[in-house]
Structures are given as structure tokens and as C-alpha cells.
Amino acid sequence: MLTDALEAEHEALLQFLYMAPVGLVKASLDGEVHMMNPLSAQLLMPLAADSDLSNLFDALATVAPDLRHRCASFPSKFGTICDALRVQVSAGIPGKRDAQYLSITILKLDGERLMAVLSDVSVQVKQERLLEKNRAWFNAIFSGIQDYALVGLDSQGRIEDSNDSITRLTGLTPEQVEGTSYALFYPPDAITPERMLDRLHEADEAGWNLHEGYCVRADGSRFWASSLIVPLQYRTELGLPAQAGSLVCDEASYCLVIRNINDRKDAAESQHREALCDHLTGIANRRAFFEAAELELARVRRMPRPTSVAVFDADHFKRINDGYGHAAGDAVLFDLAEKLRKCFRQIDVPARIGGEEFAVLLPSTDLEAAQVAAERFRAMVEHATVSFNGMEIPYTISGGIACLSDEISGLGELLGQADQALYRAKQAGRNRICSWHELASTA
Ligand SMILES: Nc1nc2c(ncn2[C@@H]2O[C@H](COP(=O)(O)OP(=O)(O)OP(=O)(O)O)[C@@H](O)[C@H]2O)c(=O)[nH]1
Fold first, then answer.
1. From CA 297, how far away is CA 68, in angstroms rounded?
2. End-to-end CA distance of the chain
3. Nearest atom of ligand 1 to the alpha carbon of 326
4. For ligand 1, what atom is nearest to the CA of residue 280?
5. Which of 44, 257, 274, 426 holds its CA 20 to 30 A away from the CA of 198?
6. Residue nearest to ligand 1 atom 28, measured at CA
7. What pLDDT digit, counting tens, does each position of 368-398 carry?
8. Cα radius of gyration (the chain)
9. C-alpha–C-alpha distance, residues 308 and 417, integer Å
10. Ligand 1, residues at Cβ distance < 6 Å
11. What is the rounded CA–CA span in Å between residue 58 and residue 76?
12. What is the spatial distance between Cα 196 and Cα 193, in angstroms, rounded to a whole number?
């Protein structure tokens, strides 16, 4: 019974040796071959003089002449004599044939026996060389370019690596930025942790994500930049077959390319203004507001977070028009838009959505924070006058706010709630902010 089991095991071992994807050679300490599998014979045959494979050291003498000595002088009774020693078996001919490389591992099993593991690593060496060459090329190119920086990001938007161009562009060294969020490159009020991840998701979905806006340098100064995020696919970039395991990284990662386009800022802004800005005030128009809000709602559906809107309306605006003239009314609207721009964060979207009606989209903002921001804006308007043609025109605004919740089906409903709150603020005497939620709770 025991003999049968042993025999079966022996048979299985022989089969393994025969089929193994590496060359296996068992030899005595002086290299005399006791056993070798077919792959070893195939790998050693082109090297051995007269096709003689009776001695391992003789067969490898032309490519690894010191192996015999290394094995003879190995001091321990067993252990690893050499580990994945790479030797070049044949030279390549550019465009015709690749160079051949063999990896040799030799283990001393005991006082009498050696086991050699041989494998053809030509493809691996070729890929490593290609990678090395690409890295050198990219470094040469990117260190030479003045206004680009290249940054590697992990799946959470943390900076994994960057090249020296980041210092030229931002004044921060690769060591300073490594491990921090890429939000570091943007003004704090222009990005939230959620928006930072949104951009990665949008890059996954569309293949890339492009953003134009201000970036900040280490000294706090700003420059107008375009930043492109592209998901990295190691497998396809390296041309690896699907099963080539070790070099493939399954964790998502991204490349962020930041480009200083300060000189194009004015042109970009005027193009942008044509399509998406209100002609009188220069802030977003109704269309741009709805586009931005729909995009934000799609982001919220993918990754929930508090989101609010505020709507504002100038109080008794007809009286201003009638009392000071229509042009003065325009100046008041312009002033209102300017104050919105100053008072809210860069990531917020203030827009003129009607004659004297304004709205602000407040991403990643709960009701309480929306209330604080809206109140700050109301007070700012109340405490200043607009200078126009030698006149000082005082005005006030009323505001309504609403925060997205599970019960709300879409943007229309959210704006509807904010409008109802605004109506209440008007009814309650103007120059005040109401929230839809306080209406709902007192109803
Ligand atoms: N100057 C100027 N006036 C505008 C513009 N668009 C709308 N208006 C005026 O804004 C006024 C809005 O008036 P109403 O809707 O009656 O409201 P109101 O006088 O502001 O009063 P309440 O909203 O109730 O506080 C109208 O007189 C419009 O003609 C604009 O672009 N420029």
C-alpha cells in the first residue's frame, strides 16, 4: 500500500519535472548531470560544445565560466549558491533577432548534490530594457519642457511620483508632494475632497478629464493651468499578454499633466464668456448654471454628499430702476454679481438665471453651511452702496436656500424649494434668508 503511494508520488514528481516551465538539472557537486528535464536540454544544447550535456559546468563554460569555482568554494553544506544569475547566451541583431538571456539559480541540496533551475528570460530582459529606455526618454523630454509637470496618482488621488518639472511649475519638490492629495495644486476653495475623486471617476468613464482653472504655487501665487488626468493601463502600455502577472498593476492609477497656460488665459476666458457667461454681469448664465448643476447631481448620485442651492433676488428692484434709471439698475446687478463672485468659493457656481434673479450652486455644502454663506452675502450687500454717476445707491437682497435630499427627484424640484423659501423671505419683509427646510418644518 505504502509502496503504491510512493510510486504514485514518484510518478507525479517525474511528470512535474518533465512538464515544468523551467529547466531543472540535478547534478553532483562537480557538475556531473544525473537528471535533466527536456527544457534544460533545450536551453543548454546551443551552448554546449559538441552537444555534450554530461556536465553542467562544461555546458555553461562559455557564458558562466566561474560557476564551477563558485560551487566548489560555497562554504555551507546546503543553500543558494547563485540566485537568478543572468547571463547573455547570444547577441541580438537589431531588427532581426533579439538577444537571448538565461537566468541560472543553483541550490546546494547537501554535501553531494546540486539542483540548477534554468529559465529563458530574454522577453523579460527586453521588456525591462524597453521600460528603462522609455523612462530615460520621458525624463529627458519632461525635464526639457518648461511649462508641463507630470504627476503619478494612485486610486485615491494621492501623489505617487512626479518629476523635477513639478518644482519648476509649482516651487514644490517631488519629495514635498509625494503622498499628499493632488488637491494640493489647486486653491483650497476651488476643490473639495469629493471633487478630487469625481475627476478620477470621470477620467475612468471618459478616458480622460480636462480642467482649466487656477493652480497655486508653494508661495501662494496663482497661475492659469490646464490639467489633464488620464487613467494608466500598465498592461496595454507594456504590450504584455493578459497572463503576464508580475508587472500588471490591478489597482487604478492615473497620470496628471499640469500645463501652465497663463498666456492663453485671456483667450480661453473670452471664448468661455461667449457661450456660458451672462453678457451684463460676466458670471455664469442660466444655461451654464443648469449644465453645472446637472453634472454635480450626477456626481452626487455616484458618490453621495450634501449639496445645496441658494437663490437671491434684489429687493424692490423696480423702485431702483424707476428711481435712479435703468442704467443704474444694471450697475446694481453688476455689483450684485461681483459680490457673489467675491463671497462664494471658487468651486461654487454663481449664475444669473433671470432678470434680477441669481442662483448659486454649492457643491459639498450642507444646509447649515449654505445658511452661513448666504447670510454672509446678504450682510455684504446690505452694508455697501453702489456708486453710479455720482450717486450712492443702497440696495438689499432676499435669499432662499434648499439642500438636496433623498426625497428630491431632480434639479427642478431643488430650485423650486429654494424659490419657495425666497418667496417666504420676501413675504417676511425682505433683506433676509429663508431655508425651505424651516418652511417645511413650520408648515
Ligand atoms: N435694470 C435692469 N432691470 C431689470 C433687468 N431685468 C429685469 N429688470 C427689472 O427688474 C424688475 C423686477 O421687478 P419685480 O419682479 O416687480 O420685483 P421687485 O421690484 O424687485 O420687488 P420684489 O422682488 O418683490 O422685492 C422689473 O422692473 C424689471 O424690469 C435688467 O437686466 N436690468
1. 71
2. 88
3. 1
4. 31
5. 274
6. 318
7. 999 999 999 999 999 999 999 999 999 999 9
8. 35
9. 11
10. 280, 313-318, 321, 326, 329-330, 333, 355-356, 426, 430
11. 23
12. 5
CB 101 within 8 Å of CB 122? yes
Mean pLDDT, contiguous 10-residue spans, the chain (443 residues) = 79 82 94 93 88 92 90 93 90 82 94 94 89 77 73 94 87 93 95 94 91 93 92 57 44 89 71 75 93 93 94 97 96 97 96 95 96 98 95 97 89 95 97 92 72
CB within 8 A of 279, min separation 6: which ones? none
State the pLDDT at residue 271: 60
Domains of the chain: 12-120 (3.30.450.20), 125-265 (3.30.450.20), 277-442 (3.30.70.270)
Measuring CA to CA, which residue among 360, 363, 364 is closest to residue 374? Answer: 360
Would you state the pLDDT for residue 443? 65
Beta bridge partners of 115: 26, 107
CA of 325 from ligand 1 middle (Å) equals 12
Question: Whole-model pTM above 0.80?
Answer: no
pLDDT of residue 242: 43
Distant-in-sequence, close-in-space partners of 346: CB < 8 Å, separation ≥ 6: 187, 189, 190, 213, 214
- pLDDT at res. 8: 86
- Scanning the structure block, which residue is given the C-alpha cell 547566451? 89
Select from 379, 377, 387, 380 the least CA-distant residue to 350. 377
Summarize pLDDT for 316-341 with one digit per residue, the tens. Answer: 999 999 999 999 999 999 999 999 99
What pLDDT, on the 0 to 100 scale, is given for residue 131? 87
C-alpha pair distances (Å), 371 with each of 145, 340, 368: 46, 14, 5
Mutate to test the pocket of ligand 1, among 280, 285, 318, 396 (most ligand atoms within 8 A of CB): 318
